[in-house]
Amino acid sequence: MNSRLLLPGFLLLLVSSLPPAAVAQSPPAQESPLHQLDVSAGHWVYHGQSLGGKRAQPSAWTWNEECRWSANHIFMLCSFSNTWGGKHVDSVVVDTYSRKDGAFWHYEIFDDSADKPFASKMQIDGATRTESWTETRKGKSVRQRIVYEFASPRKVTVQFQRSQDGTHWQTTASGTGEKTQEQP
Questions:
Q1: Burial 134-158 (b: 16+ CB within 10 A, else e)
Q2: Domain annotation for the chain: domains and CATH numbers
Q3: pLDDT tens for each residue of 145-175
Q4: How many C-beta atoms lie closer than 10 Å to residue 95's C-beta?
Q5: Gap between the Cα atoms of 106 and 130, Å rounded
Q6: What is the value of pTM for the model shown?
Q7: Are 23 and 17 spatial neighbours (Cβ–Cβ below 8 Å)?
């Protein structure tokens, strides 16, 4: 029989006989930058206030966030169920680290009732996590960021900020989050 026909079957048998841990091995906890995302794992509840502005009234917001590691321990997967000023928004977030550019990345996909998907670089500096991106509004670039300050593995403050120049930041919303359940 032709050996080219036997090779796929042999490879399938070989891979199926490997223990699952050999196929989807987790990176060493302290040796990989990914361990800095561990704090996200679990169920978080956030409460905050949007400060309002030219076209918006101040309003309360609430997030329910459920995060866990992907099976290969490379992606932190988070499901959000949010209420912003009475409007419900669902989204899915994927956070990861790229060895190629040495940066953390944040990807968010919204349901059909909200904004378009986006990606932003995420900087982690100790207990501070910052997601930042640039938007164009009326022909002008506006820098946006979300800054998380972890007071502990179970408590965090969050600020939404914008800037015209990338130096002077104005807070547009702020709140606090609390981990209510650890990831099993």
A1: eeeeeeeeebbbbbbebeeeeebeb
A2: 26-181 (2.40.128.20)
A3: 999 999 999 999 999 999 988 899 999 999 9
A4: 22
A5: 10
A6: 0.79
A7: no
